[in-house]
Amino acid sequence: MASEAEPLEKRACTELNFKPCIKCQTSKEEQLKEPPQSQKQSTYDKFLTAVRLRAQFGNTDFIALNEKIGQLTAQDLCDKHVVWHRTCYAMSTNKEHIIRDEKRYNRACATSDVTLLSSRTVGRPTASSTLSATDEEPVSKKYTRSQLTAYDKTECFFCQGKIQGPLHKCQSANIGKQIKDIVHHSNNQEWKVNYATVLSDNDALSRDIVYHKKCITEQWQFLKQGNAADSGSCPKTADRCNTDASGPTVHHITAEIEFFAEIQDRINEGEFIPMDETEKLYLLKMEQYNIQYVSKFSNAKSERRWLRQNIEENVNLVQFTPLPKKPTLIHSKAAQNAAVDEAVKNNTYDDMKKLFEASRVLRKLIQETKKDPWVFTGTLENSEHCVVPQELHSMVLWIMKGTTTVKTEARAQEFNRSASIVSQQIVQAHKSNRQLLYDPKSPVAAFRSTSETPITLGISLYCDHKWRSQKLSNLVSQAGLGVPYRRVKQYVAQISEGVQMNMEKNDGNYLPPGLHKKRRLRFSIDNVDAKVDTSDGRNSFHATAMAVYQREPSMDETVEVVTEYATPTHNKSARSLKDVPMTVVPLIPSNITGTPKPSTSPSYPNFKLGMNEEQLRGPAFDDLSWLLVRHYHRNHANSVIELAEPHDSSSSRDGEVIHVRHQPVPVWTAYNSLLRTSASNTESIKLDKVHALPLINAPAHEWTTLTTALTQLSNLNKLMA
Fold first, then answer.
1. Spatial distance between the Cα atoms of 599 and 151, rounded to a whole number of angstroms
2. Is the pLDDT of residue 204 over 50?
3. At CA 411, angle to CA 410 and CA 413, rounded to 5?
């Protein structure tokens, strides 16, 4: 039998009908719902938990249902395809209802009154419900904004326009706190509702609250006298206490309110108030309210400091400016900025006159420098001093850094480099009086460039070498950062002519400038592939490049340096780019036949995998150990170095924080540098300087090309010996 197969704890559920709603056991007009397939388990589990919890709290509707369900699990409800009405499920699992049952259960346990569990009303709890009936005091009526008249922010917060008079904004924390205290201790529900959104004492400023001085003074007096502040009436309340005799009186507080308000109004109008006048105004306010002020400080300096502190706390946007041998001035920040602007305006004429005289001196120096213009001699090194007057360079340097001395040599060189760049641009943009007075034939004709500087020529040559774009060269020239494209091509042609002159002088061999004679040379030869993506595969460019490497000598070593640069012809129209030959290195014929490239790969018939495993095991283990150590020391903790150096002359003296990453295990480059032999541990690493030789317009895999390259390098080695 089915009843014998079920456990004893589940037999109670046999009288529960699973076809209608499991909660109400009826099939009313509302449609029955079954949980979605993906959420069945969790939904049934939530329903069972809610039913058992509410039954535990003594809800009679769920006690019977819990007894019928018994020990059924969520899986049992899934198998039986339990359904319910949507409203029944919502009412059963509602969290607020569960919390309400729990509160009712706790109250019944505390009062030992079981009737509290049965005498409950259906629906949301109200003021007349059983829960509220047990309270000692009746629930007061709750006021909302919909029950009151709309709050007008443009009228006085207290009277809302019932009293005429000047309005004042709440602009200090002291006034905001006073308004809060008045509202908090009042019986005026309208004030409490209107002030409900003010979260703190200072938040009254953001609400743009305005008030009459008369209104806030009267309400503050009612508060201090033990009366509850109310609009139109001031009934006595028993919960307020009188002001302590040791504290400030009502008249004293009123006088201070008027004092701070007057200071606020005067500085907002841009007035500068001396500190001694402020002290007299404070005493005058006290006399107006018949207050005999007695100082509690032994000296006038302490009293002045106390008054200044109170002004700072109660007056908004106030600032104190000390003056030598004069009283301190009280003013607003906006008034100070206006005064500074006025002072700058008055001194502008004298300053501009000084700048004009300085510009006349610099213009005259630039004109003197242009009488002996700079000429490109094949190199741009150490050429900026020939173009820029030292006075102009110093002026730009002063503008950039003033007279402050930087801490490191690298930063000093950075400033000098920046000043040199700006100075060269000024020199190139300079126009003579003859150019300025010339009447051009066309109204849109631009000035003709009459001078060139190393920075502009270097940028133009780099752009042409990197991108080969005429538009880019002209754009850089129009921006004042380069020379026109036609001049770039003339310089390229002149440089190639200078290379030819160098080779003719050295018997067909190019002698790179900057090489040190009688020192060891190293060479390298490699192929250069350019213009290899032509549409038909023809007219591609495959050449051979050669480079010379030479170790830099030490500082105390005397060497002879090659200074013969590839000096181009100074005549601007001497030759054009189309006259440049394809190559300046003639090919030397070779008697070797065939091609240097091997036709077949070498073969090793006796080679077998693993034959040298014993010899390779040791180095492989060392490499693996090094890789593991490098991996686990990669994320090393950063150390912090603090430099006592400000970021700006106008900023604070906070130190600059620099993160330095220590690497306990070096990379291969650092490891190899540690193996070098040197006479001293403090000796710096010597670097190689690279010099380029002219290209050979032939593929690198031909015997004639290799013969020509080796011959060029051999002759160069003889010339440097």
1. 99
2. yes
3. 65
- Band (205; pLDDT cuts 50, 70, 90): low
Q: Would you state the pLDDT for residue 143?
A: 59
Cβ pair 189, 195 in contact under 8 A: no
Q: Which amino acid is at 6?
A: E
DSSP assignment of 314-356, as one string?
A: HSTTEEEEEETTEEEEEEEHHHHHHHHHHHHHHHHHHHHHHHH
- Give the integer Cα–Cα distance in Å for 681 and 216: 82
H or E segment to which residue 477 belongs: helix 470-478
Task: Output the six-digit token pair for 643.
Answer: 């430099």
* CA nearest to 695, candidates 535, 496, 539: 496
Render pLDDT for 338-356 as a digit per residue (tens, 0 to 9): 776 766 666 677 888 889 9
What tokens appear for 304 in the block?
Answer: 């002045």
- The two structure tokens encoding residue 683: 């000796």
Q: What average pLDDT score do residues 407-411 get?
A: 87
Burial of 269 (0-12, 13-18, 19+ CB in 10 A): exposed
Cα separation, 78 vs 596, in Å, equals: 84
Output phi, psi for 257, to 5 deg: -60, -45
- Residue 565, classified by CB atoms within 10 Å of its CB into exposed (0-12), middle (13-18) or buried (19+), is middle
Q: What burial letters (b/e) apply to 399-424, b meaning 16+ CB within 10 Å?
A: eebeeeeeeeeeeeeeeeeebbbbbb
Distance CA 1, CA 11 (A): 12
The DSSP output letter for 539 is: S
The answer on pLDDT for 37 being more than 90 is: no
Strand 541-551 versus strand 688-692 pairing type: antiparallel
**Domain map (residue ranges) of the chain:** 2-126, 145-247, 373-483, 512-598+696-720
151: Cβ contacts below 8 Å, ≥ 6 apart? 145, 160, 194
Residue 133 has what pLDDT? 38
Position 294 pLDDT exceeds 90: no
Question: Helix %, strand %, coil % for the chain, to 5?
Answer: 45, 10, 45
Q: Which residues neighbour 483 within 8 Å (Cβ) at sequence distance 6 or greater? A: 449, 452, 456, 457, 460, 477, 491
For residue 323, how far is the Cα from the chain centroid?
Answer: 39
For the packed helices 390-401 and 333-370, what is the interaxial angle rounded to 10 degrees? 160
Whether the CA torsion 570, 575, 580, 581 is positive or negative: it is negative
Instruction: Provide the token pair at 316.
Output: 């908004």
Give the H/E segment covering residue 359: helix 333-370
Q: Are 126 and 142 in contact (CB under 8 A)?
A: no
End-to-end CA separation in angstroms for the chain: 117
Q: What is the pLDDT of residues 675-703, one digit of tens each?
A: 655 544 555 667 889 999 999 988 888 89
Tell me the C-alpha to C-alpha distance, in Å, between residue 141 and each of 138, 147, 180, 392: 9, 11, 22, 83
The two structure tokens encoding residue 5 = 């197969």
Answer with the residue of higher pLDDT: 303 or 556: 303
Pick from 116, 93, 121: nearest CA to 105 = 116
Output the CA torsion sign for 425, 426, 432, 437: positive
Q: Which residues, listed in sequence order, are joined to residue 210 by a DSSP beta bridge?
A: 169
Distance between CA atoms of 195 and 173, rounded to whole angstroms?
16
Q: How far apart are CA 411 and CA 301, in angstroms?
A: 48
The helix/strand/coil state of 233 is: coil
